[in-house]
Amino acid sequence: MTVSWDFIRKGNHGFIMKLKLSVIAVSSIFASTLASAATVYQSDDTILNFGGRAEVRGNFSDANKTDDNGRTYADASRVRLSVDGTQKLSEEIAFFGKYEFELTENEDGEKDDVAVNTRFLYAGVETNIGNFYYGHQNNAVTYLTDWTDAAETYSGYINEYSVATADRAKNVLRYEWTTNSGLTVQVDGNFNSDSESAKSNGYGAVIAYALPFGLDVGIGYAASDETYGNGNDTDTTDAFMAAAKYTHENGLWVAALYQGGDISAEGVKGSQYNAADAYVGYAFGQNNVNLTYSYFHAEDIKELDINFVGLEYARYMGDAAFFASYKINLLDEGQGGIGDNDQDEVMLGMRYSF
């Protein structure tokens, strides 16, 4: 991680970071979203960073079998590339932009083309009264869902069924503000955003507080009018969230998140649902072991069911990571199907970050 004037300049962020440097050193060991970006250009008022990852992963599960393929193995490798820049206008204002995309091999074995997925494409203004961003970026509630989405593989599943609660969405206008006392506020609106299943207009908000002894607590709400299928089937999906996270300099990370509300799908309007996510991790030396639990159940949309326990060991060596993950599925045969199959899985992988 490159420490720059921008990192220190955000007085609201920088104060909290200084209070919790030891916790950051621990948590950065096993935060799977981080990459060791390098500063490729820096002047008095401009910083340009470039980074990414090359990650090879093999998945072993009976869920990989199809009618014309009896193999239990499937490749899940990927490459991510990211560039971001900050330009300082004054001591109170800076401009920021980021682009990140992911490459995976095309599943069509007849050609070598790759599939490209944009993960981030946004820009904004960072000020001493908060930051404003617009584009393809995190939702406000991602601030809370990231607390339990800390494993290399089997975490962060339950919030992906709605555009407004997903990790990222298109056409999002987001405001974030963190005070010196540890209070964080984020609000967003997404406009004509979309996912594989729906188009959405919605909004979200988060209030969280970081206590000085390592405990963070927060609540959030997100809602969206989502259009499915032929474009005539529209209803509201909403979600209330409550989360807590505890980190300690000895390497412990414990987090839990509850989510509930109404969710819609094509042909189904406003099905009540409950969901929960939990993460317990311990980092020691260059190692991390963690246990995760994910649960989602909607009354009228059984194919959304998620229910599994994840076990993982990861070894970090500089910019390289090696990990082995095991998902113990608790669904009965034939349950789930969209975000979770009804089979156990093993994932083996290596990641090199740069």
How would you explain this protein's 3D organization?
With 354 residues, the chain is mainly beta. 7% of the residues lie in helices and 59% in strands. It has 4 helices and 18 strands. Strands 2-4-5-6-7-8-9-10-11-12-13-14-15-16-17-18 form a 16-stranded antiparallel barrel. It is globular, with a radius of gyration of 20 Å. The relative contact order is 0.14. The N terminus is likely disordered.
What would the keywords be for this entry?
single chain, 354 residues, mainly beta, 16-stranded antiparallel β-barrel, 4 helices, 7% helix, globular, disordered N terminus
The residue ranges in which pLDDT falls below 50 over 5 or more consecutive positions are 1-34
Strand element count: 18
**Beta-strand fraction estimate:** over 45%
Q: What about the largest sheet?
A: 16 strands, antiparallel, barrel
**What is the overall shape?**
globular
> How many angstroms separate the termini?
10 Å
Structural class: mainly beta
Query: Could you give the order of the helices and strands?
Result: HHHEEEEEEEHEEEEEEEEEEE
Name the helicity range.
under 10%
**What's the average pLDDT?**
86
Strands across the major sheet, in which order?
2-4-5-6-7-8-9-10-11-12-13-14-15-16-17-18
Radius of gyration: 20 Å
Total helical segments: 4
List the helices and strands and how they pair.
Layout lengths: L4 H5 L1 H9 L1 H7 L10 E5 L3 E15 L12 E3 L2 E11 L4 E13 L8 E14 L2 E9 L3 H4 L22 E11 L4 E12 L3 E13 L4 E14 L4 E15 L4 E14 L2 E17 L2 E12 L7 E12 L2 E10 L15 E9 L1
Antiparallel strand pairs: 1-2, 2-3, 2-4, 2-18, 4-5, 5-6, 6-7, 7-8, 8-9, 9-10, 10-11, 11-12, 12-13, 13-14, 14-15, 15-16, 16-17, 17-18
